[in-house]
Amino acid sequence: MEAEIISIGTEIVLGQIVNTNARFLADQLRRLDIDAHWQTTTDDDPTRIQAAISQAQTRAQLIFVCGGLGPTLDDQTMASTAAAIGVELALDDEQWQKIQADFVIRKTKMTPENIKMAYYLKGGQILANPTGMADGAYLNHQGHTYVVLPGPPREFKPMVTQSLLPLLKQQFGNDKAIFSHNLHFLGLPESQLMDEIEQVLDEAKLDDVLATSYVQPGEIQVRLTIHDAMQAQAEKKLAAAEQAIFKRVGRYCFGIGEHITLAEQVVKLLREHQWTITGAESLTGGMFQSTICSVPGASKVFNGGFVTYAAQTKEQLLGVPKAVIDQYGVVSAQTAKAMAEGCQKKLNADVGVSFTGVAGPDDLEGQPAGTVWIGIAIKGQPTQTSQLHLSQKMATRQWIRQRSVQMGLLFTYWALQNKTN
Amino acid sequence: MEAEIISIGTEIVLGQIVNTNARFLADQLRRLDIDAHWQTTTDDDPTRIQAAISQAQTRAQLIFVCGGLGPTLDDQTMASTAAAIGVELALDDEQWQKIQADFVIRKTKMTPENIKMAYYLKGGQILANPTGMADGAYLNHQGHTYVVLPGPPREFKPMVTQSLLPLLKQQFGNDKAIFSHNLHFLGLPESQLMDEIEQVLDEAKLDDVLATSYVQPGEIQVRLTIHDAMQAQAEKKLAAAEQAIFKRVGRYCFGIGEHITLAEQVVKLLREHQWTITGAESLTGGMFQSTICSVPGASKVFNGGFVTYAAQTKEQLLGVPKAVIDQYGVVSAQTAKAMAEGCQKKLNADVGVSFTGVAGPDDLEGQPAGTVWIGIAIKGQPTQTSQLHLSQKMATRQWIRQRSVQMGLLFTYWALQNKTN
User: Fold this and answer.
1) Which InterPro entries match (chains A, B) (predicted)?
2) Selected residues 386-415 of chain B with any CB under 8 Å from a CB in chain A
3) Which of A214, A310, A361 has the CB atom closest to B16's CB atom?
4) What is the pLDDT of residues B339-390, one digit of tens each?
């Protein structure tokens, strides 16, 4: 099954926006074991849209045309697709009523072009748009399957997942499909992690489990995949692979699943312990606490904390002794310890996490950008401090700060896991 | 001048990564008035790479082939490009020495494939790689110009700007080129802003100034462009356009230039005033202060501040009177005012900015997600408070928090500008 993704949009070919839809759709197709070896992008020009479709017909059975379904004169995709295939347009009466009613409610004048949003490919099916006005279309015609989708990602994604995928699964799905699990790692270099995983799979004779890695901000995602297997058998092998991998590098894995973040996992553990957390942040400037707050329900485990950028503010708000800073400097284990303990005590929290270091671009106290100390103070336990060396050729100020926050979350996650043992 | 951008990468067609290189290159080409109406993407397969290049030859004079220059067996781009054009590969001796020396230094075993990184297209020029090992190539051959570039964005972008653009300007540039200015706006809906700008340009009879908008997180970028003009004349017209636009909507413009952020502008004004700023953040959880800290040199204007998520922490750390919270609620002008004044006084800063509101998903105190109060306390001035209504169909928790921070920065920017008047 060969597919081609055609993206239509002047703003894409002009370089004004990044084409995120193609990645999203390609990822969905891969999960259905559909190969999309070609992606083509052109602007809202009827001749070029038709040329792209004709080209795709020579090398793909399943053809996606994405973008250009809006109400303006520019939007030519549905009509051009119909012309390229040689079918007519059909009007979705129900949608057309809805569009007209919406204009009445919004007290907005409708232009004659608005009817375009209710057109689809005659003989095919309508793809409903859960978050917008324009219909999509799905048509089987002379050995090809054509799918027309809207451009704005906030309309594109819901239409793909809610309206399109059920149809694709019905037409192209089979029991022997592709199965995969997503593992989330942090704290090991990608090359080392993947070497270890390859060895583990080799030793466990799980040769048909394919491991691919994908570095994202704050984590390394490892996808374990099995092709052409029956579900029960695939799940059994994936479970065996995970177990073997956990034995070797489980410490660095913070979750399994599609949409998992380390901050969520930390908040989840805190809620299980019924513990509260606070922070004292220097170079990260509030980013750690903001990341905790990004998790819905964070208010159950977080009451507040401190941003202490200047040395004097570390003394004033956290009670870090001036003598500690004078003797060891602000970028030191001793200061990180005093900060973590200071914030934990001031707010009577169960866990206090501190960050002090050099974000750069300049050195600080003779230490290079990327030198960071993280402290974790837990009520009734000795305070832990750890040093990060994040100075790299490519390390920017923002990268050093983000990386510090992620490592702080990882150390917190480890500390919270130990509690349960 | 027609161009086509061909991207090569299995990880792109599998949907593992977003193709940001194509956008970057298209944007650079647009500035040179080079039209790239086609973008094609395929995987690291020699047959498909050659097919893509043959296809491009039929519709473009300038052909870019991006990605697949690494040392692994997968990387087939340079050889496939040479085959598609019908030229041989040439070895860059100097680069090959460098690669070998690097392996000695890194004490790493070299594989036979490593020599590939020193190949270029015979008869053409080498494109130096300022941040990586693989050479790029530039070749004029039988009416076409071929450019081969590496895939990793951190190698791609420096090679484009440092090695490629000078050659493109030399071969395809002319005096009558494209000139543009970037204006950064916040605080007006995009449609209203663009309507106003269109009217202004119309009234000022600046019909050849084209205004296009691009919504990014935290701002609306408006690009004013003039095509086919001489530089002096274009700059004069762009200046006139800017002046007319400022008269109408200047309040919402926070900067002109390529890489400008509102946080930078705020830090710049604070440094000019020799003022310090602090924050007291509830729903934003530290994001405002972290954004201030993202600007290099922030330590000149920022000593620290507070994250006060729980009502009780607002009282404890900021001295917000319990009676204010009991009477008006935490999501109120009165609480925002007390928070802003509290943090400003506690740290003896010149400016204190507070955020309190409902990030969602749940309501709070009967107020819907998206209800936010921002307070700005400036030493010796009456404290200002403003309410935001960010409840929208598409508003996520994270969007409401980010938007609150950006609007807080805008209000701060306005307050700092008034000081100078």
Assistant:
1) CinA, CinA-like_C, CinA_C, CinA_KH, Competence-induced_CinA, MoaB/Mog-like_dom_sf, MoaB/Mog_dom
2) 393-394, 397-398, 401
3) A214
4) 999 999 999 999 999 999 999 888 888 998 899 999 999 999 999 999 998 8
β-pairing verdict for A136-141 and A125-127: antiparallel
The pLDDT tens digits of the residues spanning B171-189 come to 987 766 678 899 999 998 7
Neighbours of B281 (CB within 10 A): 33
Mean pLDDT of chain A: 92
The shortest CB-CB distance from A15 to any of B23, B289, B312 is to B23
Distance CA A336, CA A353 (A): 9
A61-78: buried (b, 16+ CB within 10 Å) or exposed (e) per residue? ebbbbbbbbbbeeebbbb
pLDDT digits (tens, 9 = 90+) for B189-222: 777 888 899 999 999 999 899 888 777 778 888 9
Mean pLDDT of all residues in A201-228? 86
User: Residue B64: its pLDDT value, please?
Assistant: 98
Which tokens belong to A306? 């401190």
Domains of chain B plus CATH, in order, are 2-172 (3.40.980.10), 177-256 (3.30.70.2860), 262-420 (3.90.950.20)
Mutate to test the interface with A, among B14, B133, B343, B396 (most CBs of A within 10 A): B14
Q: Which residue reads 């964070």 in tokens?
A: A298
Q: pLDDT class for A421, splitting at 50, 70, 90?
A: very low
Q: What angle do CA B295, B299, B302 make, to 5 degrees?
A: 95
CA distance linking residue B326 with residue A316, whole number of Å: 29
Alpha helices per DSSP H over B121-261: 153-158, 165-172, 190-203, 231-249
- CA A303 to chain B, closest CA, distance in angstroms equals 5
Whose tokens are 């508003």? That residue is B395
> In chain B, pLDDT over 70 holds for what percent of residues?
97
Contacts (Cβ under 8 Å, ≥6 apart) of B27: A14, A15, A16
Mean pLDDT of A389-399: 76
Contact flag A308-B304 (C-beta cutoff 8 Å): yes
Query: Poorest-confidence range of A63-67, A115-119, A285-289?
Result: A115-119
* CA atoms B66, B70, B73, B76: torsion sign: positive
pLDDT at B73 (0 to 100): 75
Residue-wise DSSP of A234-272: HHHHHHHHHHHHHHHHGGGEEEESSS--HHHHHHHHHHH
Phi and psi, residue A373, nearest 5°: -115, 135
Q: Which residues pair with A58 in a beta bridge?
A: none
pLDDT at A106: 64
Average pLDDT over residues A96-101: 88
B81: amino acid identity, one letter: T
Cα gap B9→A276, rounded to integer Å: 46
Beta bridge partners of A121: A89
| Facing residue for B285 by CB, picked from A12, A14, A290 | A290
Closest CA in chain B for residue A153: B394
Amino acid at A94: E
Residue B273 has pLDDT above 90, yes or no: yes
The answer to whether A28 faces chain B, any CB pair under 8 Å, is yes
Q: Which two tokens stand for residue B358?
A: 């409902």
Q: How far apart are CA A276 and CA A352, in angstroms?
A: 9
Q: Of A237, A242, A256, A266, nearest to A183 (Cα)? A: A256
Asked casually if ipTM beats, i.e. exceeds, 0.90, the reply is no
**Inter-CA distances, B227 with A98, B34, B153, B176, B237, Å:** 41, 11, 29, 8, 12
For residue A27, what are the CA distances in angstroms to B8, B151, B191, B242? 17, 19, 33, 43
Compute CA distances A406 → A270, A291, A378, whole Å: 17, 9, 19
- Pick the closest to residue B351 from B294, B261, B413 (CA basis): B413
Look over chain B and give the mean of its residue pLDDT values, rounded to a whole number. 92
